[in-house]
Amino acid sequence: MTENAANTDDNRSGAGPRRIGIVEDHESVVIGLETMLADESDLAIAASAATVPELLAQGVALDLVILDLRLSDGSSPKSNVEQLRDAGLETLVFTGAENPYLVRLAAKAGVLGVLRKSEPNATVIAAIAAAARGEQVVTTEWAAAIDGDPGLLDVGLSPRQRDVLALYASGEKAARVASLTGLAPHTVNDYLARIRAKYAEAGRPARTKTELYKRAVEDGWLPVPQHPDHG
């Protein structure tokens, strides 16, 4: 059991408030959550940071982490949730983004729920309280992203295929990918053909390099690009 998990168990057995951590790179959102929970005696914001590694480095005992899907470090929601889970921490996604791909990535890693920033304060508070108790927070958009998006079927890439995909889709030429991975150029081309075939079989075409890039982002092998509607 990790230190965070152990501390969380200790806190839950006591009478103190549930301790909430926030991973959010917009200060106004953090302030808004602090204000929203100020009068909730059973909930307390105990830590906040702009990235998951920064939050974990603080070593604060937490019962729940509220996570934004889009962060300025370009990290994948799936990777962020997995890091938090490895530290023994459950996650509630709190986001203004309406990208079902990002929700799917987080859900695949195992979050307690996804909550929009546009929800009424009472709804947000109730959701945070439920998640802090370890309960699932089921919302329509979360269910739709998980159950209603067959276009994101897992294609079952091997670790080496994922490495090749990430390098090639990020802009490297096949010869450079071969150099970086230690593979022969013809092997890289063979891997790329197999990757495209697997995506095609899953109903997710990846004929062009741009399409391969999109698939790599959707599946969390490359960071999510920044967008004007960040958050």
Automatic annotation (TrEMBL):
Keyword entries, A-Z: DNA-binding, Phosphoprotein
Database matches in PROSITE patterns: HTH_LUXR_1, RESPONSE_REGULATORY
SUPFAM superfamilies: C-terminal effector domain of the bipartite response regulators, CheY-like
Gene3D superfamilies in the cross-refs: 3.40.50.2300, Winged helix-like DNA-binding domain superfamily/Winged helix DNA-binding domain
Response regulatory domain mapped to chain residues: 19-132
Protein name, UniProt field: Response regulator transcription factor
Pfam families documented for this protein: GerE
InterPro entries documented for this protein: CheY-like_superfamily (IPR011006), Sig_transdc_resp-reg_C-effctor (IPR016032), Sig_transdc_resp-reg_receiver (IPR001789), Tscrpt_reg_LuxR_C (IPR000792), WalR-like (IPR039420), WH-like_DNA-bd_sf (IPR036388)
Domain of life, source organism: Bacteria
GO terms under biological process: phosphorelay signal transduction system; regulation of DNA-templated transcription
GO MF term (any one): DNA binding
UniProt modified residues of type 4-aspartylphosphate: 68
